[in-house]
Amino acid sequence: MSKDYKSQLKGVNGANFKEFWASLPEKQANCIRVFRMDSMGHFTVHDDDTRHMVEILQNENCIVKARTEANTTNMPWAMINLIQVRRLLRELVFIQGFRVEIYEPAEHDSEEWEVNYGSPGNLSCVEHLIFDPSGDSYVPSTKIMGLKLLKGDRFSLAIVNAEDREVHVATFGDDPRLTDLESVFIQSQVREVLVTATNDKLARIAERCSVMITKVSKSTFEAPSAESCKTLFAKGSMIEDADQIGCFHAAVQFLKIATGIGLFKVFPMNMANTMRLDSSIFENLHLCSDTEKSLFSILAMHCATPHGVRRVRQWITQPLMLEQSILERQNIVAALIENGDIRERLSSVALKGLPDIARIAFKLKQLDTGKAINYKLALRSFGRIHDLCKRVPIIMETLNETDDPIFEPYVSCLYIIFL
To answer: Would the pTM count as exceeding 0.85?
Structure first.
């Protein structure tokens, strides 16, 4: 491809691009292909993918359907900038559950294309196009599940949360309607499920819960041994069950998480501690929605940080059942209500604009490997961490202004971080 984006779709370049487009495998309807034409932020979409320009960007005028001097491929096409790409992909991936393929000119050969794949549960290779570089915007949790169908209605699963560096595992039997599995889907807020095979019952549940089902090869679920995954677990954490190890291995492979970094803490999934909910309860009570007014959208407006928004969503989707846990949370909330001045200063000054710590921490953890990482964004993350460190003394000072002992554990934790 020519390095000049204005000539990449005309003449010989246009003919080569059309031949390359025709050679691509057929894609599903919930997939979009975006081509990055240069390093200056020029992108193109082609053929049937241009319909999203009208539906999402509401910009039909930028779609060129006829042969022009700039485009001799005879294919409908549109050129958009980085801001428009970010808006387009956030809507398609986060809200509508699309897959995305990002094609960029190869560094070693301008005639070749390199492709990165993204989906609701796997954003590591396309996050530089979807997220605001400041890291301040709210990003829905990108949990991904490896799910293995056993004999009968039995399942093994591993839910990987790369942001919080946690993996939750379980093996259980279900009833013919798969009510337990539906509760896991909806309450864990998993975005994508990896399977080697599916069936009608599983497909219906996934559709009700707005979860993407992705088929992968059987070899993806075949971890060589527990020892082979050991380097991915934090000290003291391990998965013993072979099926659960396979599910975890599939998720890690899909996310392209490198080994050797002691990343994840393992937790057995215990649904007994939370109230059981299904998709109909979520829909009828308007509990959570990214597009419509709901309990979550109302409460999220008052959160000061992206992590706070995700925590509110977790509290809504997983209501507590144990009295002691409920009282502990109520006591914290009551203390913040009674200390209105402190609460206001925390939300409007100390915590306002705080970066997405979970995302940044995962990005920096990946630095050890040198793989699957955008170095410019990673280096920018160090600056965001520096901003965070400057906030810690302000938060400590604010919390120290009250004599309420309920805040003491949090001040102690911040003191350790500050040291």
So the answer is: no
